[in-house]
Hints:
The complex is a heterotrimer.
Chain A: H1 2-7, H2 10-31, H3 36-58, H4 67-94
Helix pairs in contact in A: 2-3
Chain B: H1 3-6, H2 12-34, H3 38-46, H4 51-80, H5 90-124, H6 133-152, H7 180-208, H8 221-253, H9 266-300, H10 307-320, H11 336-364, H12 373-396, H13 398-404, H14 408-438, H15 444-470, H16 487-517, H17 556-561, E1 575-577, H18 583-599, H19 603-622, E2 628-630, H20 632-642
Antiparallel strand pairs in B: 1-2
Chain C: H1 14-44, H2 54-57, H3 60-85, H4 89-119, H5 128-161, H6 165-197
Amino acid sequence: MSDMKKLFPIQHILGYVLSLLLSVVALSVVFLDMSAAVGLTILIISAAIQMGVQLFLFMHIGENGSKTALYTNLVYALFVGLVTVFGTLFTMIWGYQ
Amino acid sequence: MKWDEFFVTGEPMIYGAMVSIVVATLAILIGLTYFKKWGYLWREWLTTVDHKRIGIMYIISALLMLFRGGVDGLLMRGQLAKPENGLLDAQHYNEIFTTHGVVMILFMAMPFVIGLMNVVIPLQIGARDVAFPRLNAVSFWLFFAGAMLFNISFVIGGSPDAGWTAYFPLASIEFSPTVGNNYYSLSLQIAGIGTLMTGINFIVTILKMRAKGMTLMKMPMFTWSVLITCVIILFAFPVLTVALALMMFDRLFGSQFFTMANGGMDMLWANLFWVWGHPEVYIVILPAFGIYSEIISTFSRKNLYGYKSMVWSMIVISLLSFVVWAHHFYTMGHGAMVNGVFSITTMAIAVPTGVKIFNWLFTMHKGKIEFTTPMLYALAFIPIFTIGGVTGVMLAMASADYQYHNTMFLVAHFHYVLIPGTVFAVIAGFYYWFPKLFGFRLNERQGKLAFWTIAISFNVTFLPLFFLGLNGMTRRMYTYSESTGYGPLNLIASIGAVGLAIGFIILVYNIYWSFRYAPRDTTGDPWNARTLEWSTHSPVPEYNFAIEPTVTGLDPFWEAKKGGHQLYQGKFEEIHMPNNSGQPVILAILFFFWGFFMVFSWWTPAIISGIAILIMLAVRSFERDHGRHIPVKEIQETESRLRGEQV
Amino acid sequence: MKLDNTLPLEYRSEENSNRILGFWLFLGAEIVLFSTLFAVYFALWNRTGNGPGGHEIFEIGPVLIETFVLLTSSFTIGLVINSMRLGLKKPALIFFGITLVLGLVFLGVEIMEFVTYVHEGATLQTSAFLSSLFVLLGTHGAHVTLGLLWGGGLLLQIKKEGFTLDTSNKTFIFSLYWHFLDVVWIFIFSFVYLKGMM
């Protein structure tokens, strides 16, 4: 029994269950009737939490010796990624006449 | 495909080039065999993982590419020297301005900067090598494979001809049916992978391998600039990777990303290209700022003014460089809102750059300035680059930009930024760090002659282009009629280009002469400089530092020379070094062939070389190579030999 | 070699911890790479030309299988690292094997999905929307394929050598890669499929 506990630590099980639950929550946008804005909000929030689950519970980002570098890297990557996505939409779609 | 479609035919200049390529290759092969240098070449250079040698190979490649790009430039200026000139036809002219741009930015400026990074960074932070020496060799060879793939295009299959920006729909298979733009997408892709890995490698090196006591805020300014540059590389190059991949899909597999029908969006290419392209400008400019900071501080005999503001302005530049890209296509037709936003961000980025200019001026203020060759380039940089910057702000104003968009004014602007910014900087850095690598200085008198020829000719070449642009001459036009009145200014510019060529010939002669006759430097510190790289021997032994240095502040070597602080504490210990490996060069050769087969859509050989690449990766994964150790006795012998003692 | 014995094996030597930092940086680059693909997809997603739109071709069944399989494989690769740190080779190998099998299932379902699309006349060449869809999904799928080859080789090395400085470091880095692919899939699941079917 204790062997199984060692092999399946609670943190990992929690992460797994959480990720499945969040997928089900995201799925609701297809099966429940809701406006596009509400649907998108649900998708964005559930995806962001899922990312957090993977980063903190599975990828152990917090345990690394160069924590500051890792977080800076992540924040910078997200900054450039979001600028690319929303900047492209702004330049090519929304702001295009 | 028939052989006359495979080789470029019908152009006497290209036949000449073919003959000279064959002759030069044969001469090199025969020479290597005759002097029995194959083993030496393989053992000491092709398989090396030493950052200094990799740096030297980068710089040699960059100089070769400077020659290639320079000849392209001369041909363009030759064609434009008088109205209705017949030196080049339209197609040939298109190919030449395309390859001139690509070669100069990606295969000259980038590798020159990366070469100096390789040579200097580990020495400047007191490390024995980079974090991943093997990966460093892979980076170099991938760059080299990409560069060679791009360069063979002009004899096999035809060069790309849609500009270095390769805008769609012109670059699509419909309007550019030759393989030229396939070369563009694949060679840049291969070289780009190498650059991305360089970025990762140097970030880890700088973050984790600094000498004891060197906190981030005690790093030399060049190291800071390289760190920021690598951060920009890391986040900008993936965008280019995607853009080039989509271009390849459009051209080779018939996808519809940038097409004119089926929902394709041609300007999306321009958008992606510049999301990478603008940060790219700062990738080649920031290390230059670092080089100038070192040189100005050294030859003013003062520490750098405003260290913290220098660092912060670079950090701000790195962030802002990602939010200005749309200023490259204000005239695309998006709304006033988009143009307004990008105008403001663009003007904002001029502010931190201005801060840096003032810091350099204040560093020189009341300093004992010594006018060496590197310092002359640094001094010339400030006013010339300022002209480039100010005209850049002019172009940043969206409404005004409609007047001079894509005119010679723009061409003049970016040459005024990139030549004093990057080219002067890498030449200055080359003169400055040359004695560290080879143990002697380049002759100063010839160096200064080259400097004055280059600096004056540069202005003669590019200043007229501002006025030509304002008069309405657009870029990339291959000829013009006499009635336009563009003739006289164009002639002046072309004369300037000849002057530039003469300047570079003097520079090459300067290198040759100094190799033969320059007196050897035995101090290791010929400039009386300030940072760690000058505290070890010249030429640097393979392990860089016999004892790892300890640092207490900025300019550690300067402080040590003034008698404050002991840099090397402790005694010799065994040194762990990585082994050489032939895998990087083999991997790059496979990438070259993969790229070549993809260019011509020869699927079977392409798949075979793709599988061979995967096999090479697997070989690396299963290999266990833990390097070797240099024993204490050997270190002692090397050290006393370098100090000139009799062993 | 300098070793810090207070750290887990995969971080213990200086080279090892450098490699882990280097790989995290690479993942930073990967974030931008996939963001760019998403940017292209969002810009083109309603530019369907004469081809079908997303809601006409997406089917929830296979997508749910893919999601479940990939999430589970992300869980099992996490368990590999846990067993590795406990020094248990056999369970680690079993979990690793399960991870790779799940990856293979994912890939199989994705390939079948692509085949179905092509049979419905939705190909890479049909429209800008489909080009961007295939390239976004295909880039993720190519990453999974590469991961399977890499993971297969790594499995053999662990079997032969056990967990050493080398293999534990490689395994940890592989786990980072695999979790990352899961994160990317979550975004594809949410913003390509679910948003497309909304």
